[in-house]
């Protein structure tokens, strides 16, 4: 966490997944996909295959894969550079779970992009709304392979965000300094005036190389992280 003086920064750049929002647990994800596909499954099957999917790292925004097969290594490395690679990487990982429902792989991928699959952290709305009221610039900067703006709209925070910078739209991903520069330019501020907030010390923390300060939060379930964003209010505005 930065030790800058209170109110020092004129704006804030937030990561999305694991910072402002958290994707649903694997069991809920699988249940929703099964319901969408009209497939019945026992509780034992749901628990067993949700665990397989989770360990495979097939749910974007959740845990990292325990193992990446050689044929997926390059896709995994560049998964956030464009939408095609993102889908191929995660659907490929989902196949490692060897689901008995072959039609479910694409349904699962589509489900994770829906607003219903994402929960805001308890302090997300409060922090974004307060920064907006203060006139501080707010950007969301995410390594991602799909458009998260519908999630922001569905949870009522889109009006608090001045700019959204997504890696797949620009074919650049964190920790490349160019994507941080783009977010700074969108807010009309020099990096020294901005605070980067994220859960990835390597990818998000690379903003410091450009001159931004960095505030780290932990990628935890929403009920285990009630107020990690609130210190931002002491630093920005």
UniProtKB/TrEMBL annotation:
It holds the Pfam family Hydrolase. It comes from the Bacteria. Keywords: Hydrolase. One of its GO terms (molecular function) is hydrolase activity. This is HAD-IA family hydrolase. The lineage of its organism: Bacteria, Bacillati, Actinomycetota, Actinomycetes, Kitasatosporales.
